[in-house]
Design goal:
Layout: H1 3-7, H2 10-32, H3 39-42, H4 53-57
Length: 72
């Protein structure tokens, strides 16, 4: 039988098939990214809290010994 002959080519054929599938996927992705995005889909509203950095920089960096419960 000639199956042993084709077994040697199996990794090569599989890599070619995977390369072609990857290329088609890359081309499909490239062409689909050229489509413009609609304005309502791309608008995002971000509400961040206002922080007083003066109060933040004056905070103690030490742990409060009262708040830590020792293990008994």
């Amino acid at each position: 039988m000639e199956i042993n002959r084709y077994k040697k080519l199996l990794p090569f054929i599989a890599s070619i098939i995977l390369f072609v599938i990857g290329g088609v996927f890359a081309l499909f992705t490239m062409f689909s990214l050229d489509n413009p995005v609609e304005k309502p889909e791309s608008s995002v509203e971000v509400n961040l809290p206002v922080m007083n950095w003066g109060q933040y920089s004056n905070l103690s960096k030490k742990l409060d010994s009262v708040s830590i419960n020792p293990v008994k």
